[in-house]
Amino acid sequence: MIVATVLATAASRAVTGVSAAVLAVGLGVALTNLGGLHARLAPGLRFASRRVLRLAIVLLGLQIALPELLALGGGALAVVAVATGVTFGATRWIGARLGVDPRRSLLIATGVSVCGAAAVAAMHEVAGSDDDDAAAAVSVVVLYGSASIVVLPLLAGALGLTPHQLGLWTGASVHEVAQVAAIGAAAGAGVLASAVAVKLARVLLLAPMVGLVSAALRRGAADRPAGTPGHRPPVVPLFVAGFVAAVAVRSLGAVPAGVADAIPGLTSALLAAALFALGTGIDLRRLVRGGRSLLLGGIATVLIGGISLAGVLIVG
């Protein structure tokens, strides 16, 4: 697992727009589907896919300072909130119409509307979904988010968007933080700064979204007859509370500059380890039969792109 994390981290620095976590998933998939997974690795993989993942989500909160997000202005924050909320709800509704498993459509909706693979993994913790569902959702956000690196700048040029508008649109619609950074870096420092700031505003929505879904699932479990088997999430997942606490600590300026600079790299490495572990549970033969999941992800991507573009054109 350590070797896979190091390899994924090194490769992510050489491949623009692809995060170490996403590459680690691929390594995990390759290992298990090529017959290289040994039973003695199971305890460590189980630990990484749960404990390490939760720690990574908590540390993600240390990258978010509320004063910086509030500086974006009410218009930009409204675009983020509307695009994220509508995409999440509509994706779940469309998924039901397409016949996609509710747990899988929940993960796809979360990954597309919030922050890609990290959001999928966080929701996977409370949704009672299996690793195939998580793999399908991660595949969707990687595929369409990577396509956005090429498509969004081309569309922005055709539509005559200003650099500021491109930054807002990128942050409000593209799935992975690394993909957002790739578009911003190619377009210039101004675009990069606004795009990443807007993206982090979306990441902030991860905690309330996971918390609300956990509460809804808990109510559903309570409504089942006594003795009926079913997943019963906690009232508030501990890692969600930790994420919120981390945001508060960063917002209060209690994180030293040196620590703040090191946090993104550490978080990326922990996410890579956790998602490598999740990747080892993926059966590719089952995954390739998930054509409806890919269709749902494409629809969700177009939806969040269209809503956020409309909002950007309105707020300027």
UniProtKB/TrEMBL annotation:
Per UniProt, the keywords (alphabetical) are: Cell membrane, Membrane, Transmembrane, Transmembrane helix
Q: What is this protein called?
A: Sulfate exporter family transporter
Q: Where in the cell is it found?
A: Cell membrane
What are the TM regions of this chain, as residue ranges?
6-31, 76-94, 106-123, 135-156, 177-197, 203-222, 262-282, 294-315
For this chain, the family text in UniProt reads: Belongs to the UPF0324 family.
Kindly give the membrane topology term recorded for this protein. Answer: Multi-pass membrane protein
Which InterPro entries does the record cross-reference, listed alphabetically? UPF0324_pro
Principal location class: membrane
